[in-house]
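Hey, sorry to bother you again with one of my protein questions. There's a protein on my desk that I can't quite get my head around. No rush at all, and the record is pasted right below.
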Amino acid sequence: MYNPYAGNILIDRLRPLLSRDEAMAALTYLPAVHENIAEVPPHIRLHILQNVRSMHIPHPSELRLFETVELNMRSNLASLDPRNPSARRFINKEKGGSRPIPPAMSAIVEALSGVGKTAAAKHILGTLEQLIIHDDFPDVAWPVPQLVWISCTVPGSGKLVDLARALMRETDRVCQTSIFDDDLAKPRPDAEEMLNRWICEANSLYLGQLHLDEIQNLFTLPTLEARRRKKDDARRISSLSLKDDLCLRGLLTLMNSQISVLFTGTPDVTPAFNTRFSTGQRISEGGHHRFKPIEKVSDPYYQQLLGELMKHQYVADPLNKKDAHELPQLLLDLTGGVLRIIFALWIGAHRVAFLRQNTDSLRLGDFERASVLYQQAIHSPIEAVRSRDPKRMGEFSDMLPSDDANWAANWG
């Protein structure tokens, strides 16, 4: 098979390039189905049911993201090929060192909370070994570590100094080092200096892909009153504001330093970045992905997901034929098609079923009862998601990008 990266030691140790079918197989995880479940006491079954939450079937949107990450990360590592003397000088911070043009590309994934954007990113990165030790590296007489990828959640403070600290801690954790101990011990660190320090170390570790999750933590959300005051203008400017002005400069520094970044966050942050054309370009140059809730019973992905869930009916008498036929639509109605809520409701329905006396069965009404008992607090946002009405979704700050009133009708 032809390998466009042959001979680059940074890529040769990675798993082979995968076709879409191979990627589907690599990303799929189906928890074991327990047989003879009726012999297990119900209170034990509930704990077995928790395994359902780990089920992962990649959506076509995730497979597209897989391709994006592969392209961005491997092209990034190609520019660091240690066979290139200039690239080696760049890594070693020597005079005359540079990386080939074009620079590394970054990408962004936006989706409602619970739809699966973070899980998708982490499953994709998880198909790759995170840390590789090269015992035989060009022109180096000692083992060389390669940090293939790193994933970090943007701190809730939204401050650049806290982001730099988080990156340092995670890098030391993955590499099992204490490189940043002195930096982390500084009582009054300079945020930009700390970020630049981390970037230098990340480059020396040949970092292939940085994943920054919960990117919306960089912004202050507008109040509901402020959102209601905004005019229904499709070109209106985002009302989000940065908590720390240094952070935007820091993100640009990250991308300008030739590090490929994958951003994941809620839909409201993309227009905030796009208020500056240069920032919007850099953040989404390598790909802009939108994940959406499940909308139709006929969706092949939903059919596959339900087929697997139906194997995890941990009762002696599973749903009867009529209830099983009506369940797909009911689940969409009760959850808005949000994956996290679907899994939670599946477990909740079993909790309701186990409370019944003198029977060991699962019924359609158990899902409705579980929705009332365990998910009442999220009924309003679920109804807003189902409506796909920009005004109703706008009641919830993280549902709708403020500059795209048509997003709800065209997400995906």
DSSP finds 20 helices and nine strands in the chain. Residues 223-228, 231-238, 402-412 have pLDDT under 50 and may be disordered. The CA atoms of residues 221 and 240 lie 6 Å apart. The radius of gyration is 24 Å.
